[in-house]
Amino acid sequence: MIIVDDVHKRYSGEHGPSRWVLQGVSFTIPPRVNVGLVGRNGAGKSTLLRLIGGIDTPTRGRIERQCRVSWPMGFGGGLQGSLTGRQNAKFVCRIHGHDDALADRLAYINDFANLGDYFDQPVKTYSSGMKSRLQFALSMAFDFDVYISDEVTATGDVAFKNKAAAAFRNLADRAGLIMVSHGEGTLRQFCSAGIWLHEGCAHWFDDIGDALKHYKESIPA
Amino acid sequence: MRSHWNVQKSVASALFLREAITRLSASRIAWVWILLEPLAHVIFLMTMFGFVFHRMVHGVEGGVFIMTGLLGFIIARNTATRSAGAVSANAALFAYRQVLPVDTVLVRAALEGFLMLISTLVLLAGAALAGFNVAPHDPLTALAAFSGLWLCGLGLGLMLSVAAELLPEVNKLVNIAFIPLYFISGVMVPAMAIPQPYRQWALFNPFLHGLEMLRAGFFVQFHPAPEAGLSYLYGFALVAIFLGLALHVRYAGRMVAQ
């Protein structure tokens, strides 16, 4: 269960604080419910995901995570360019307290990402597709109660996309999912409930179809 | 759910290994540089000033005098400057909420202290093989001064790491500020060689206190300035560490967001 209570967020920029990105967002995500987040560009979707993932703090309000929540997957961050894929994977295993089964997990990640020799090359030599494959494999290697996904399914080549989609379906069945995607089909496929972010406020819908309808109606024709 | 202590422990050990790998394998001979940097300084200054100040302090060999000062200064400076850069170097890792900016600074300072301890021991052993008398007559005082200098570096690093994230210009100022510090921290001359009233001002610098006490620990004939002492060194370190941690608590959110 994740409780978001009256969350406000604004960033501080070069010239004083920015406008409010989120203004009084409140909702509760029950366990094992898959939620799609919709809204225009700049509506605060990624900001909200970062707040739920705990890598940023709200300016006002509070967020309670009563379960294990993943880091925002497919975020582009989380990899150190000067280290190899293997060293990065080891680091992530260690901070999650999995020193014991390190070899197994590394084998799983290597197998899933399918990077071959590149697994032992510095991440800064990777193409963007390879990078996102590694990130995806990393997040699949751990058991979380809720996974946070920011446009993660849209990466990699065709072969990897199929594999990732299968893994993602499996994951959506056994754990909760909070995802941002601009693909309507993806959202309908994986999510049951929806949150529509509009002008700093969040509107909860028990059916993702209703959220998408409101989102579309908000766009001027 | 893991306890806070467990999370902290695994983050610290993971970061330590990650830092050690980049520090020691960044280039093909990165680990050689860790020894070579202080060694090059020592040899350079020994040839430049070792003979000039040969009998500056009665009964103390000029070369070893400079060597102790330099090693003490380098541990404080390297700890401060390298841990000040820890936050920006690890920015990618803040995508995991377990990793906080302050962890990266503490771990870098620990690694730097560990590496400097090893290179100090190697250099002292090398000097002993070359026939210098480097055995400290009061090892506990020398060790206390050495750790005090490291703690000062840690405190400065904690403060500077936050300042550099909020105001990127700070990094340039720090690099400039460490050049005169080299000369007024007593690397080449003892504090007693500085005439009054300048000495009392120079002794606002905690590094000078640290180097004086370090030499007092090494040489039986060396008499530190009466105003110099470990209490000022540790007092400075304590205040700097406290302020640095307070800054990290205050600005953790903003550093992660960047």
Could you outline the blueprint of secondary structure elements for this entry?
The complex is a heterodimer of chains A (221) and B (258).
Chain A: E1 2-9, E2 12-13, E3 16-17, E4 22-29, E5 34-38, H1 45-53, E6 60-65, E7 69-73, H2 85-95, H3 102-113, H4 128-140, E8 146-150, H5 158-174, E9 176-180, H6 184-190, E10 193-198, E11 201-205, H7 208-218
Parallel strand pairs in A: 5-9, 5-10, 7-8, 8-9
Antiparallel strand pairs in A: 1-4, 1-6, 2-3, 10-11
Helix pairs in contact in A: 2-3, 3-4
Chain B: H1 4-25, H2 30-50, H3 62-84, H4 86-89, H5 101-129, H6 139-166, H7 170-184, H8 198-202, H9 206-218, H10 230-257
Helix pairs in contact in B: 1-5, 2-3, 2-5, 3-5, 3-6, 3-7, 3-9, 5-6, 6-9, 6-10, 9-10
Task: Name the features.
heterodimer, A: alpha/beta, Rossmann fold, 7 helices, B: 258 residues, mainly alpha, globular
Q: Can you walk me through this structure?
A:
- The complex is a heterodimer of chains A (221) and B (258).
- With 221 residues, chain A is α/β, with parallel strands linked by helices.
- Chain A has helices spanning 45-53, 85-95, 102-113, 128-140, 158-174, 184-190, 208-218, and strands spanning 2-9, 12-13, 16-17, 22-29, 34-38, 60-65, 69-73, 146-150, 176-180, 193-198, 201-205.
- Chain A has a domain at 1-68 and 147-161 and 177-221: P-loop containing nucleotide triphosphate hydrolases (Rossmann fold, 3-Layer(aba) Sandwich).
- Chain B has one domain.
- Chain B is globular and about 60 Å long.
- In chain B, α6 packs antiparallel against α9 and α9 crosses α10.
- Chain B contains ten helices and no strands.
- Classes of the chains: A alpha/beta (221), B mainly alpha (258).
- The interface between A and B is medium-sized, with 27 and 26 residues.
